[in-house]
């Protein structure tokens, strides 16, 4: 009868398989001085950390071509941009912003083109869609930063115009 606390240090440890998320079930069993036991199950969810973001390619969103141009839509492909299965668009960020400004960081993900931040429209584990900032022309270093760190830079060439069409309705 009654609740008693225990001042003993308690530790739960283990190593889940690589890149495996929970939930995991942990059963805590307590035995008192009279050898009476009680057990309770707890569910723990572990989100495995992603590695550093990696850029494998960059192209225009309208046609998948290189080079890129200022103020155009660009898709960045790679790995570890977000957790597997997670996606987000800038819509909620804009709605919840007091200024209505386009986000340069979405759920901890940002893209730099040279020294200028791009506007992040869409994020997933393997693809980012960004609106290029008003950058100059010539070779530009692109990096992706997440909560895990910053990718190695990838060089793209920026030129004044890049023709392209978005296919409709697909």
Layout of strands and helices, then pairs:
Blueprint: E1 24-31, E2 37-44, E3 54-60, E4 73-79, E5 88-89, H1 91-95, E6 105-106, E7 109-113, E8 116-117, E9 119-123, E10 127-131, E11 138-146, E12 149-150, E13 154-158
Q: Nutshell version of this structure?
A:
This protein is mainly beta and 170 residues long.
Characterization of the model:
The longest helix has 5 residues, at 91-95. The model has no long low-confidence stretch (mean pLDDT 84). The strands form 3 sheets. Strands 6, 7, 8, 11, 12 and 13 form a 6-stranded antiparallel β-sheet that branches. The protein is mostly beta strands. The chain starts with 23 loop residues before the first strand and ends in a 12-residue tail after the last strand. Strand 1 and strand 2 (37-44) form a beta hairpin. Helices cover 3% and strands 39% of the residues.
């Amino acid at each position: 009868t009654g609740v008693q606390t225990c001042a003993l240090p308690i530790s739960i440890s283990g190593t889940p398989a690589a890149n495996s998320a929970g939930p995991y079930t942990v059963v805590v069993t307590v035995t008192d001085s009279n050898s009476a036991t009680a057990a309770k199950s707890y569910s723990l969810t572990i989100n495995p950390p992603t590695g550093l973001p990696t850029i494998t390619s960059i192209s225009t969103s309208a046609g998948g071509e290189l080079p890129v141009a200022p103020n155009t839509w660009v898709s960045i492909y790679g790995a570890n941009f977000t957790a597997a299965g997670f996606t987000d668009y800038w819509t909620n960020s804009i709605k919840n912003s007091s200024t209505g400004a386009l986000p340069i960081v979405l759920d901890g993900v940002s893209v730099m083109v040279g020294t200028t931040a791009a506007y992040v429209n869409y994020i997933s584990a393997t693809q980012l869609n960004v609106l290029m900032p008003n950058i100059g022309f010539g070779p530009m270093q692109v990096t992706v930063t997440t909560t895990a760190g910053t990718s190695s830079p990838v060089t793209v060439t920026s030129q004044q115009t890049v023709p392209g069409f978005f296919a409709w309705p697909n």
